[in-house]
Design goal:
The chain is α/β, with parallel strands linked by helices and 367 residues long. It has one domain (6-363): 3-Layer(aba) Sandwich (Rossmann fold). The protein has helices at residues 6-11, 17-26, 89-95, 138-152, 166-177, 196-211, 227-237, 240-246, 252-260, 267-278, 290-294, 315-324, 339-342, 344-363, and strands at residues 43-51, 57-68, 78-82, 107-111, 158-164, 182-188, 300-306, 327-331. Strand 7 (300-306), helix 12 and strand 8 form a beta-alpha-beta unit. It is globular, with a radius of gyration of 19 Å.
Length: 367
């Protein structure tokens, strides 16, 4: 659940790598970059009409992506990294290549999730604009990426799949839907199924959005402020301790006004991605049983949670890690959902060791 684009990028250009990722995660579900300022690395793939799990269809579905590094001779070093809620590959480009994933060793594919304003979305569809754009799911996001990989990039196997927040939700879904496709899966502050507390937050945001007169049933003009959604989101993205320690009371009024300003992410995109997260549950076909869903998972997993996460509750992911006997990294600082930025060095080190474990094991094997 993360986001911002060109305008915010300029604002954070002088921030260190760690703080920059922190700024990105703060935006969890925030601004959008118009396609008029695309970087040279942004690519698009047409995958045709995408049939959704609810029976609807996204017409002429487009998937945005960016690549870094080189594919090795046996095509075994590719890693897919998907976007967070409201995030784009422009955001990921600032925080993942060389910082979280070593692109001198791996071929990194950053992919835009459906509804982020780059891949097919309510904001950019000419045939299905605004809320005439179909309701899609996390599973549909994964399917669009599967088609990108297999039909366009001609990749039938990956070294790893990773993502932060909603990207972590997609990672969990990948592990269940395509268990043989990746050797390793790294969900970061994501969830295999939303807890009741998560549903309270995201359903509350959706209800606030729909009931605000400025939203006008999705037929608004420009990007109207919707303060109730912005405040709710800001309260959940970190922790009371973090806000208290980083915002001086004397500066609160100015800080609060900035909090109310929309971050540029289209509200209809926000609406559809919220619906996707609310419906997310990798164990839906197993009556909600994570133990049953876990039986489908074959990839090795590094599951990363934040113990004080108020935006994506860590309990379901932690439970699944224990069921799978998977490697679990608990980020325990006061940053809450922002912990991937606050603890970037630890996170990056752990990811590197996890990805290299098999290689190191082979290298160190006694004759």
């Amino acid at each position: 659940m993360i986001r911002f684009h060109s305008k915010l990028t300029n604002r954070y250009m002088k921030i260190s790598s760690s703080a920059f990722l922190l700024a990105i995660v703060i935006c969890i579900a925030h601004s959008s970059k118009s396609q008029s300022g695309l970087s040279e690395n942004q690519q698009f793939a047409g995958i045709g009409n995408l049939k959704l799990e609810n029976g609807e269809t996204i017409l002429d579905c487009q998937v945005g992506y960016r690549t870094f590094g080189k594919l090795n001779a046996n095509r075994s070093n590719a890693i897919l990294f998907s976007t967070w809620f409201g995030g784009t590959t422009n955001d990921l480009e600032q925080s993942v290549p060389a910082k979280m994933i070593d692109t001198t060793h791996y071929f990194l594919i950053l992919v835009d999730a459906l509804g982020d304003g780059f891949s097919s979305s309510p904001s950019n569809s000419s045939q299905q604009p605004r809320l005439s754009f179909p309701t899609f799911s996390i599973r549909d996001m994964v399917e669009s990426q599967y088609q990108l990989l297999t039909k366009i990039l001609h990749l039938n196997h990956l070294k790893a799949i990773a993502g932060i927040s909603m990207g972590g939700m997609q990672s969990f879904q990948w592990a269940v839907d395509h268990p043989e496709f990746a050797d390793k899966v790294i969900p970061i502050v994501g969830s295999p199924q939303l807890s009741s507390n998560d549903l309270l937050l995201w359903s509350g945001e959706l209800r606030s959005l729909e009931s605000d007169t400025a939203y006008h049933g999705g037929n608004y003009t420009g990007l109207p402020p919707i303060p109730s959604v912005m405040v709710m989101h800001k309260l959940a993205v970190s922790t009371p301790e973090y806000i208290s320690n980083t915002v001086n009371r004397s500066e609160f009024a100015e800080w609060f006004q900035k909090t109310l300003v929309p971050f540029g992410f289209d509200w209809n995109n926000w609406h559809r991605q919220l619906e996707a997260m609310i419906a997310h549950d990798i164990a839906r076909s197993e009556n909600g049983s994570l133990a049953e869903a876990a039986k489908k998972i074959k990839a090795k997993m590094l599951i990363v949670v934040a113990s004080q996460d108020h935006m994506v509750n860590p309990i379901p992911a932690t439970k699944l890690a224990h069921i799978l006997h998977a490697q679990l990294l608990i980020l325990s600082g006061n940053c809450g959902h922002l912990s991937p930025g606050c603890d970037l060095d630890l996170l990056a080190k752990t990811i590197r060791q996890f990805l290299e474990h098999d290689l190191l094991k082979t290298t160190n094997k006694k004759p």
